[in-house]
Amino acid sequence: MRIGRGPEPSDNQPRISTTPWPNMQTSGPFDKTPGWLDWFSGPAKPRFQVPTGAVDAHCHVFGPGAEFPYAPERKYTPCDASKHQLYALRDHLGFERNVVVQATCHGADNRAMVDALTSSNGKARGVATVKRTVTDTELQAMHDAGVRGVRFNFVKRLVDFTPKDELMEIATRIQAWGWHVVIYFEAVDLPELWDFFTALPTTVVVDHMGRPDVSKPMNGDDFGPEFELFLKFMRQHPNVWSKVSCPERLSVTGPKALNGEQNAYTDVIPFARRVVKEFPDRVLWGTDWPHPNLKDHMPDDGLLVDFIPHIASTAELQHKLLVANPMRLYWPEEVK
Ligand code: 0GY
């Protein structure tokens, strides 16, 4: 099966094409960032069968630019990646639900993400980006659409600086809707951000394990000061969760999830496995489709799913990672 781009099909069905690597475009008055890697359009069927009710808890939509323009303040212009293509991928990989995280190329204009949620028959929830000027009416409308969190991004190549007092004000306000805060930062910045993160009054979800440098030497069970600090962060703060996603972004030595590779990104496995083992009730996993800003290669999402049993080796751990935990955080009303 291929999940192609192009004009949206009138019946909202995924478009099937025979071209494995089309040059995907950006619609509207936009040009892709030079060197942009397009998402993989012919993913393999995963060998690993995800459990019934599995949630892809980190993915994005991009535009389409002609319908949902990219934000003027964006740091990159991607190829379009529509809700139809996202939901076709979901079905192909065997997932039942998605958590759509606002991508920085849309700034604080959440319309594309919210539109994806409202088109999902309740099968998608979202994480928004908001400014302190957001009104309670707007927050309520986003809640009604399925938004359950806000994302604070500290990765400098992606966003301009937002003062911490503004972020704390937002975190305090969203508590009224029972939302949580998703944080994205680089491992080297954790010491400086520690006091702010530990003062957040909500559940806090860390993107991609705080982006460890997996090439730093390990000593037996000791992961070195940077990742040990991240583990301490989770250990000391029971409100902190982590996504154990994005091996394709963190890996230095691969091998890449391409050409049927069943043992991809082996250098990331010890890190993710450690987090899953120590905090099995506070981990989430997502594809990160359509994989913004990858520079080296674009993974085959089917093979990315085959990475999961390497980091969650039992059916019980897999169920927590893919079903029980995301359901508790994003669909608590359905959890008995
Ligand atoms: C990710 C990672 C990245 C980008 C974004 O919203 C975004 O632009 O999240 C990245 O470039 O590392 O989680 O998708």
Query: How many angstroms separate the termini?
Result: 36 Å
State the helicity in percent bands. Answer: 25-40%
What do the pLDDT scores average to? 93
Contiguous helical run count:
11
The ordered H/E elements are EHEHEHEHEHEHEHHEHHH
What's the structural domain tally? 1
Unreliable spans:
4-21
- CATH secondary-structure class: Alpha Beta
CATH topology: TIM Barrel
The rounded Rg comes to: 19 Å
Q: Do you know the CATH architecture?
A: Alpha-Beta Barrel
Kindly estimate the percentage of residues that lie in beta strands according to DSSP.
5-15%
Shape assignment: globular
- Small molecules in complex: (1E,3Z)-4-hydroxybuta-1,3-diene-1,2,4-tricarboxylic acid
List the keywords:
11 helices, 8-stranded parallel beta sheet, TIM Barrel, binds (1E,3Z)-4-hydroxybuta-1,3-diene-1,2,4-tricarboxylic acid, alpha/beta, 336 residues
Which helices and strands occur, and which strands form pairs?
Elements: E1 55-59, H1 83-93, E2 97-101, H2 111-118, E3 124-128, H3 136-145, E4 147-153, H4 164-174, E5 180-184, H5 190-199, E6 204-206, H6 225-236, E7 240-243, H7 247-250, H8 269-278, E8 283-284, H9 301-305, H10 308-311, H11 315-330
Parallel strand pairs: 1-2, 2-3, 3-4, 4-5, 5-6, 6-7, 7-8
Helix pairs in contact: 5-6
This protein binds (1E,3Z)-4-hydroxybuta-1,3-diene-1,2,4-tricarboxylic acid (0GY).
Residues 103-105, 158, 207, 288, 292-293 line the site of (1E,3Z)-4-hydroxybuta-1,3-diene-1,2,4-tricarboxylic acid.
